Amino acid sequence: MTSIQLNSTPVPVEPELGYGQLFGVLWRNRFLMFLGLLGGLGIAGLVTLRQTPTYVSNMQLLIEPTYQGKSRGAKLQDEFTDPDVSIDPATQISLLQSSDLMRKAIVKLNGKYPDLAPQDPNSIFALKQGLSIIQVTSGEKKNSSPTKIFQITYTSDNPFKTQDVLAALQTVYRDYNIDQQKERLKRGLKFIDDQLPNVNGDLQNAEKLLEKFRRDQELIDPKVQAQAKSDQLTKIQADLQGNLSQIRELQSRYAGLQQQLLAQPQQAALMVRLSQSGRYQTLLNEIQKTELSLAQQQLRFKNNTDFVQQVADQRQKQVQLLRTEAQRVLGDRAASASSEGLISGGQLSTLDTSLVNQLIEAQVNLSQAQARYFSLSGAENQLRTELSRYPQLLSAYGQLEPQVELQRQTLQELLKARQDIGLSIAQGGFDWQIVEAPLTGFKTGPNLVRNLLLGAVAGIFLSGLSAFVREAMDDGVHRSEDLQRQTAFPLLGMIPRLYIEGEPSLAMRLPFQKKQTLVPDIGELMRWQPFREAMDLLYQNVLLASRDRPLKSIVLTSALAGEGKSTIALGLALSAARLNRRVLLIDADLRRPSLHRLLNLPNDQGFVNLLTSQETVGLASLMDSDDRSNISIITAGTSPNDPAKLLSSQRMQELMQRFRDRYDLVIVDAPPVLGMVDSMLLASHCDGVLMVGRLDQVTRSDVSKAMESMKQFNVLGVVANAVTESVTSNPEYVAAPAR
């Protein structure tokens, strides 16, 4: 039996196109593939019959230089003697197909083939179109090396014309080779004689230009002089770097000394002069004594007493004498100083005096270093200005000097080549030799087998492409895997399709053939072994899907009508009954009931009557066999006016609770989901929902809409009905008779 994988959480997966799916698409469109194959073969056959026969002839031409001694170290006279001694395949092929040579060949062919005119461009073009020239290679394809042999092939609808055209080309190539060798030798001598006066004149002009440049610029060798200037600039730049370091060091020392003295250099110098004046220092001592006496009197007396005022007046007079002495020593610079500044500024210690001297010395050194910096900067700018003109001078000199050397070397080589040209005048160029003469053309086309194969491949490809386009546009569900992927719920069962007895299930159906129909007898279907096996497997998978909680009632529904949900509901009830379960089967499709027709039961009273009245309706039991002994069936009854109202009533809930208490399993055959609310109402009263989908009938959009409507309920999984593939892994084992 086929195992079913149950997913605890439905997660949609993207379909992966495997080999099985590809084969399935091609098999469903096999008639289209067959028509494509026939069409491709027919078109290929017609095209082959309408094609003009083609004939091919070829000849081989050896092209090699006549001077075999040329190498990379060849002398210059050899280059002038033969500039084309090396074989260039592309050049040789273009030369062999040139219009001039084609015209000469047409002249030779015009007498036998009047349609070829030498002056007609169309004739030349047609001859080129039929001509093919390739270089022959030796060895295997991976390690092949080109040879000196070229294969010339001509294609035409006349086998004799192919040979005549190649024969004419053979004559033209031979004559052209002889003429070109003679012309090349003459051109070698003429080239040297024409070049000598030009090279000599160019040398004289180059020497005059170089001499004029040196005289105008007053330079002998700009390279040497530019290098000397560059070295001098480098030295000055190094001195500048050292000078900048010295300036930064002096500035740092100057700032430190200034911070210690808390005075500018000019101010510090004045303070030193005052400290060196004896009279100024004597007055300062007297003022200090007076200030001491004033402090003592203020301790003893008040400030407005005569004793305190007398000492204060004495200090004021001493300060006036001190200002007079400062003006004598410093001049006008002492006028702006305050009395307190004069008193404190003139009192310098030996250490302060030393710091002042160091500050003045640092200022002097800093001024000298800055003056040297300006001098070096000026020298640097001057050198940069001088060096800025050297790039142009070097460029001009670099053009003039090599030109003189080149012209001298060229003149020497030409003179040497002219001396040796007599020895090599007969050498050079290349020789064209016919290795294989052309033969009568052999037929190459059309190839019927190849065209038929190409037509068959093209037909199959186009029909296959059409099949995949058709499949992509088809919204139908054709396989159980497609149904599972579309719903994203586990596939709990695959119900096989039952064909008419005696009709082979694997026979090819043509488009005009009628569709296969199911056996109308429901009893025969229920006794069909594959169907019973599939229903047993479905029931077991339902139990596994609901193992987390008890399952007492199930709703079977589908997206559309006619998908076989009623038949599957009956089969599921039989499978549960065979396992000694008490089963109640309810036909809850109140709009289009079908169970009473399948089982040939009366439908006067049924589920509708139970819903509309409080009376108990008798239950019809199927007692025909042991399988049916545990089954009770409630038909739908008469059609109500408002089925939705009945299914949503309190009476419906009470009945379902009574049924669950009395039976082990209640199976409800519900109407389709799309277009009505009945299935959703029934699902709200049951423990689980089984969704039935009939292959080749339901569409993906219908399934998606139905699952979207039922996603709020406990959907256990889906059941694929009318499956054509095998639903068991070992059909021979299932069908084997008992022994």
Please, could you describe this protein's structure?
By secondary structure, the protein is an alpha/beta fold. Among the domains are: 53 residues, no CATH class; 227 residues, 3-Layer(aba) Sandwich (Rossmann fold), CATH 3.40.50.300. Helices cover 58% and strands 12% of the residues. The chain is built from 26 helices and 13 strands. The strands form 2 sheets. The protein has an 8-stranded mixed beta sheet, with helices on both faces. Strands 1, 2, 3, 4 and 5 form a 5-stranded antiparallel beta sheet that branches. Helix 5 packs across helix 6, helix 7 crosses helix 14 and helix 16 crosses helix 25. It is flat and about 150 Å long. It starts with 18 loop residues before the first helix and ends with a helix. 26% of the residues are buried. The N terminus is likely disordered.
Itemize the secondary structure elements and their pairings:
Layout lengths: L18 H10 L1 H21 L3 E12 L10 H6 L7 H8 L2 H11 L11 H10 E8 L6 E12 L2 H59 L4 H40 L3 H11 L2 H23 L5 H25 L8 H7 L4 H39 L1 H35 L5 E7 L5 E4 L2 H26 L6 H8 L3 E6 L25 H6 L1 H17 L7 E6 L6 H14 L4 E5 L7 H5 L7 H6 L7 E2 L9 E4 L8 H5 L2 H13 L2 E5 L8 H6 L4 E7 L5 H11 L4 E9 L7 H5 L4
Parallel strand pairs: 6-13, 7-11, 7-12, 8-10, 8-11, 12-13
Antiparallel strand pairs: 1-3, 1-4, 1-5, 2-3, 9-10
